[in-house]
Amino acid sequence: MAARPILRAAGRIPPICSSHFHNATRRMVATNPRTFSTAAPALRPSTTSSSASASAKHDDRGNDETPRTTHFGFQDGLSESEKTERVAGVFHSVAESYDRMNDLMSFGWHRVWKDHFVSSLNPGYSSSIPPAPQRILDVAGGTGDIAFRMLHQSHVVNANPNVHITISDINPSMLAVGKQRSLSLPAAQQASLSFLEADATQQLPAAAVPAGSLDLYTVAFGIRNFANIPAALAEAHRVLKPGGVFACLEFSKVTNPAFDALYKRWSFSAIPLIGQLVAGDRDSYQYLVESIERFPSQRDFRRLIEEAGFVVGGAGYEDLTGGVAAIHKGMKPLS
C-alpha cells in the first residue's frame, strides 16, 4: 500500500507556532498499520451523517436549482462564475511579481510558514525498502513554491524518488511561472512533476486525477480565492485514498486583539500601496487583503473540513505567527 503523508503537526518552532497536534491515537495507528511515523493526532469524527454529507456535496457543487452567489473581497452578490473570472484577472496581473510581493507583504515569513508546512507533512517518508510510491496534488500551486519544497523533502531528505506531484492551478499565467521555475530543478525532480490547468471546485479530470488516487492533497494560500470552498473540499475528499490527507496553509484570524489591530492597519494601508509601487497594481492587492479578511475563522474552516467528510486531529488547526496564518489538516476515513 502506498505510503501517505502523516496527519500531524511538527513540534513547537518558535516564534511561528502557537499550537500543535498531540499523539493520542498511537493505539489506532497500531491497529491500522501505515508506513509513516506513528506520531498521529487524535481524530475528531465528523458530526455530519453520510446521507446529509452526500446531500451537502450535491448542493455545494451547484447542482440544485437555486443560483449560488459569493463575494469578491468586500463586494457581495456575485455569481460563482463572475468571481472565478475576477480572481483569474487578479492572478493574471500579479503572476510575475507574486513571490516578490509575498516577501514584501510578509517580511519573508511566508517562506518560514511554507517550510514548516511541508516539514510537518514529511512527504516521501516511507518505512519500507524500497520506499513506497506516493501521489500528491498541489492545488492553486502555480508558481511551484510548495511542490518544489515537497520534491526536495521527498527526494533529498527522505531519499524517496517514487513520489509524483501534480501542480494544479486554474490560472495559466501562474502555471507558466511554475513551469519556467521548474527548469532549474534536478532532472529527477522534473521527471516527478506534472502540471494541470483545472478548477478545483469542479470535478478534476479523471485521466490526471482519478477518484481515490491521492495520498496527499495540498493547497497553500489559495483556497480563500475559490468561488465555492465546500465544493473544493468535497472534490478533495473524492480524489484522496482512504487514509489520505487534506492539508491547507492559509491566512487566518489573529488571536491577539492588539496585534490584530496593528496587522489590519498594515494590511489595508501598506499592502495595496506596496502593490502599486512594486507591481503597478493597487487593486489586485487590495482584493488579496480583503479576501484574507473574508476567509472563515480557524474554527469555522475546521467545521467546513469536517462537513466534507474528513476527520481532524486535536483542535484541527495550528496557528502560525499568532494566527496570521494557520495550517489545517483532515484525513479521509479508512472505511
Considering the chains and any ligands shown, give keywords for the structure.
335 residues; alpha/beta; 7-stranded mixed sheet; two-stranded antiparallel sheet; 11 strands; 18% strand; disordered N terminus
Quick recap of the structure?
The protein contains twelve helices and eleven strands.
Would you give an account of this structure?
The protein is of the alpha/beta class. It has twelve helices and eleven strands. The strands form three sheets. The protein has a seven-stranded mixed beta sheet with strand order 6-5-4-7-8-11-10, sandwiched between helices. A two-stranded antiparallel sheet has the order 1-9. Strands 2-3 form a two-stranded antiparallel ribbon. Helix 9 links the parallel strand 7 and strand 8. Helix 3 crosses helix 11, helix 5 packs across helix 6 and helix 10 runs antiparallel to helix 11. The longest helix has 23 residues. The chain is globular.
Number of helices: 12
Q: Major sheet: size, sense and barrel closure?
A: 7 strands, mixed
| Helical residue percent band | 40-55%
Say how many strands there are.
11
SSE pattern, N- to C-terminal: HEHEEHHHEHEHHEEHEHHHEEE
Would you tell me the structural class of the helices and strands? alpha/beta
Report how far apart the termini are: 15 Å
List unreliable stretches of 5+ residues: 1-63
Side by side, the strands of the main sheet go: 6-5-4-7-8-11-10
Query: Roughly what is the average pLDDT, rounded to an integer?
Result: 79
* Cα Rg: 19 Å
Portion of residues in beta strands equals 15-25%
Shape: globular
